[in-house]
Design a protein that fits this description.
- The structure is a single chain.
- The chain is mainly alpha-helical.
- 52% of the residues lie in helices and 8% in strands.
- It has 9 helices and 6 strands.
- It has helices spanning 11-26, 39-51, 91-99, 112-125, 145-154, 159-183, 185-195, 199-207, 209-226; strands at residues 9-10, 31-35, 59-63, 128-130, 140-142, 233-234.
- The protein has a two-stranded parallel sheet. A two-stranded parallel ribbon has the order 2-3.
- Helix 1 (11-26) crosses helix 9 and helix 6 (159-183) crosses helix 7.
- It is globular, with a radius of gyration of 22 Å.
- The relative contact order is 0.13.
């Protein structure tokens, strides 16, 4: 399960993907939509179905991974709310996050704002509209990402203009979602339930812990079996 066949793995590095895989069966998921970095976990889940003779294997949908909004963040994180745009973000939240996002002038590589535009805005609208005052270049609509990149690299589009236009586009996408969860009573109730981790949900989880432990153990054995050299497993001492 390492990035390379020669990697030495700690026990934690083997157990963690097994626990991720167990979640798929615990949630009874038919379709697993995860980032490309999790594709091996999905494959492990499908192989586990062969072990337990389960006919219906979870379908794998692997998508491109968006980077975090801060400098140096390879991917977004739920533990850092400022690192990504979430479905429940209000308009002001989106504007603040994008305004504070890493967006160096004339730099395209590892620019999270451009990643959002390329993988979210263009597929959604088939264009990207930048609104500026006439003295700053005036309004311009880009019909391809390459066209936008060319202008950005030349400095014809400034970071502030790019970020403002990105915030506008993202809020247009999110507004119907906000309206749905504010006006639909069932959706509103579901949203409130998801936001609050209650005792009852914790109790439900722990009553299913034996199933989870069994699944994790079986998956752990499968991973060990697939290792050509079991000595690669390094158990960390408590002093590490």
């Amino acid at each position: 399960m390492g990035r390379h066949e020669t990697d030495k793995l700690t026990a934690a590095q083997i157990f963690y993907p097994c626990m991720q895989c167990a979640d798929i069966f615990f949630l009874k998921a038919d379709i697993c939509q995860l980032g490309m970095d999790q594709r091996k976990v999905n494959v492990l889940a499908r192989e586990y179905c062969d072990d337990i003779q389960r006919k219906n294997k979870p379908i794998i949908l692997s998508h491109h991974m968006l980077p975090g909004l801060k400098k140096g963040q390879e991917k977004m994180s739920k533990s850092d709310p400022s690192s990504a745009i979430f479905m429940e973000d209000e308009e002001a939240d989106v504007i603040q996050k994008i305004d504070n996002a890493y967006c160096p002038p004339k730099v395209v590589d590892k620019n999270p704002c451009l990643e959002y535009i390329n993988y979210i805005v263009f597929p959604w609208f088939n264009e990207f509209k930048v609104e500026r005052n006439a003295e700053n270049g005036g309004e311009k609509t880009f019909t391809s990402f390459d066209e936008l990149v060319a202008d950005y690299e030349k400095g014809d589009v400034q970071p502030a203009d790019l970020q403002r236009a990105l915030s506008t586009a993202l809020n247009r996408i999110l507004q119907p979602v906000r309206d749905h969860f504010k006006t639909d009573e069932n959706a509103k109730a579901l949203f409130e339930r998801v936001k609050v981790w209650t005792f009852s949900s914790s109790f439900y989880f722990f009553t299913n812990s034996l199933y989870l432990l069994h699944t994790v153990f079986v998956l752990f054995c499968r991973v060990l079996k697939s290792q050509n050299d079991h000595n690669r497993v390094v158990v960390l001492s408590t002093s590490a």
